[in-house]
Amino acid sequence: MTSRPNGEPLVRLSGVDKWFGELHVLQDIDLEIGRGEVVVVIGPSGSGKSTLCRAINRLEPIDNGEITIDGALLPEEGKELARLRADVGMVFQSFNLFAHKTVLENVALGPVKVRKKPKAEADRRARELLERVGVASQADKYPAQLSGGQQQRVAIARALAMEPKVMLFDEPTSALDPEMINEVLDVMVGLAKDGMTMVVVTHEMGFARRAANRVVFMDGGKVVETAEPETFFTNPQSDRAKDFLSKIL
Ligand code: ADP
Ligand code: MG
């Protein structure tokens, strides 16, 4: 469960606002994520879930409020931003692997370029991570030669290679054929059990029940409800959450 040795949550958003033109897409968001905590974010399409993830690693600038990672304010730009962004691993719905690099190169590249690791060490670590996500035998292939589930597991290994403090997953299984969903979710459950701090946008209730400490329900750019998974799924408080769950369950 959540442990906060130095009292500071690993990720803290306070009073975060974001507009796209007239659209108030994140509305006064307050959210704290403790070390080792797994938070599942759910909500209807367009409620701001992806924007929230992108704001957390500054792929998307915010208009108001503060976001800290491990106590450090995220700056808008510059070297410091690159370093802090490397603290936040991100896995998207589309696998986003480099098509012209092998699986091994995909995983080893970031540590060499950004973390300045020696290549041999980065390769060795990449092989360990590929082992961990169950695709070690694919190391020398190109992404297009892998199934969607395998590619997504490589994407997870690539993010882990940067040794992030927190991992963000934005609908990581939404683009997968049904029979591949569990192989990706199983890797994520393993990460959660190993103590990784995770923010996971997903409608996979099974994952939420197995791995999440908290569910955050978003609608219309707001955090409408926060609860433990079992409570949220069996006894949602807000009408909007009830309505949403009645459509997806
Ligand atoms: P979700 O991930 O919950 O489906 P998003 O965060 O992707 O929601 O989007 C929230 C709202 O912001 C939607 O109405 C979407 O159309 C809008 N939006 C997202 N990205 C942009 C953008 N780059 N420019 C303008 N509007 C955007
Ligand atoms: Mg989205």
Automatic annotation (TrEMBL):
Gene Ontology molecular function: any one: ATP binding
Subcellular localization, as worded in the UniProt entry: Cell membrane
Annotated ranges, domain ABC transporter: 11-245
Pfam families the UniProt entry points to: ABC_tran (PF00005)
Naturally occurring in which organism (per UniProt): Blastococcus goldschmidtiae
Protein name as it appears in the record: Amino acid ABC transporter ATP-binding protein
Keywords of the record: Amino-acid transport, ATP-binding, Cell membrane, Membrane, Nucleotide-binding, Transport
Annotated membrane topology: Peripheral membrane protein
Cleaved signal peptide residues: none
InterPro entries in the record: AAA+_ATPase, ABC_ATPase_HisP-typ, ABC_transporter-like_ATP-bd, ABC_transporter-like_CS, MetN_ABC_transporter-like, P-loop_NTPase
PROSITE patterns on file: ABC_TRANSPORTER_1, ABC_TRANSPORTER_2
Similarity section: Belongs to the ABC transporter superfamily.
